Amino acid sequence: MAGPLQSITSALTSAGVTKEDWKAAFGDEISVMAAWPANAQLPNAVLTVALRDSARARKIAGAIATSSGWQKISRNNAEYYTAPTSGVLAVVTPTVAVSDRFLVAGLNAASVDGVISPAPAGGGLAVSEKFHSASKLVPDPSQIFVYLDLAGLYSRLDATVRPILQMGAAFVPGLSERLDPSKLPPAEVITKHLSPAVASTSYVDGGYRSESAGTITIEQAAIAGGAAYVGAMILQQHQVKGGGSPAMPAPAAPPPPSPGAVAPSPTP
Q1: Distance separating alpha carbons of residues 159 and 196, to the nearest angstrom
Q2: Which positions ≥6 away from 48 have C-beta within 8 Å?
Q3: Are 221 and 212 in contact (CB under 8 A)?
Q4: Which letter, b or e, does each residue of 134-148 get, where b requires 16 or more Cβ atoms within 10 Å of its Cβ?
Q5: How confident is the model over 20-56, as pLDDT tens digits?
Q6: What DSSP element (H or E) covers 71?
Q7: How far is CA 107 from the centre of its chain?
Q8: Is the Cβ–Cβ distance between 209 and 200 less than 8 Å?
Q9: Short-list 158, 147, 149, CA closest to 229
Q10: 31, 86, 176, 183: which could join 48 in a potential S-S bond, CB 3.0 to 4.6 Å?
Q11: Closest among 135, 253, 261, 127 to 196, alpha carbons compared
């Protein structure tokens, strides 16, 4: 870890980046959005940071990307930096783009494009009745606002985790003794009880006030979803490393009787 950090620090120093550049380049507003399409293995998450000085932001991003071997291209009036392709997780290609207004970082170029060059208005949360109804359950935020479609999240997790559990039950006999995937209820049975979770944070009378509403809180949803996904990934890695069903040990042969022991004779 020290090596990459040292390379980044050296690149920033060589580019003449100072603390003042960091403060002048980036604004105070940060946005994190994630959508999980039905045909995607992972959510498309993007981090957006508002810019005060795009020239300085480009200098900082360019120095960091160059030190890490990221590829640079220009399109949509922005500079895109893409991480080298890794065979470990090919579906993830970290991408950073810097435009005149934003710095956007995402798990792939498509999600970043959605922020740099958004589609025409008429879709997404702007026209979602579910979103507008849920947002009214908490006060208007001045600091932070969070919206989580629990039903949609559970559906995606179910579609990802259920096949892994079914394979695990086949390759790991002990798993079915603790959890039988065939007895898990259909996703629709669970999602009909899940409403969106919303939270807002505001600065009021010298302090921060946070409120959350929904079937469960944002914190509980994040913990449950993260634990379920990480557990499924660990199980999948265990299967890959094992290469198949673990061999069951053969029963040990009974010890021979001692010379002084007398076996009971059968009853006539």
Answers
A1: 19
A2: 30, 31, 32, 33, 102, 103, 104, 115
A3: no
A4: bbebbeebeeeebbb
A5: 999 999 998 899 988 888 777 778 889 999 999 999 9
A6: strand 71-75
A7: 9
A8: no
A9: 158
A10: 31
A11: 135
Greatest extent of the chain over all pairs of C-alpha atoms, in Å: 102
Task: Please say whether the beta carbons of 90 and 42 come within 8 A.
Answer: no
Beta bridge partners of residue 145, listed in sequence order: 200
Task: Tell how far CA 50 is from the center of its chain.
Answer: 22
Alpha helices in 26-76 (DSSP H): 54-67
Q: Residue 178 is inside which H or E element, if any? A: helix 173-178
- Could you read off the pLDDT of 154-186 as tens digits, one per residue? 898 888 888 888 887 777 777 667 777 788 899
Please give the structure tokens belonging to residue 61: 């991003």
Tokens, residue 43: 């959510």
CB of 35 closer than 8 Å to CB of 106: no
| DSSP element (H, E) containing 148 | strand 144-148
pLDDT in tens, 52-91: 999 999 999 999 998 888 999 998 899 999 998 765 556 6
The pTM assigned to this predicted structure is 0.68
User: What H or E segment, with its residue span, contains residue 151?
Assistant: helix 150-171
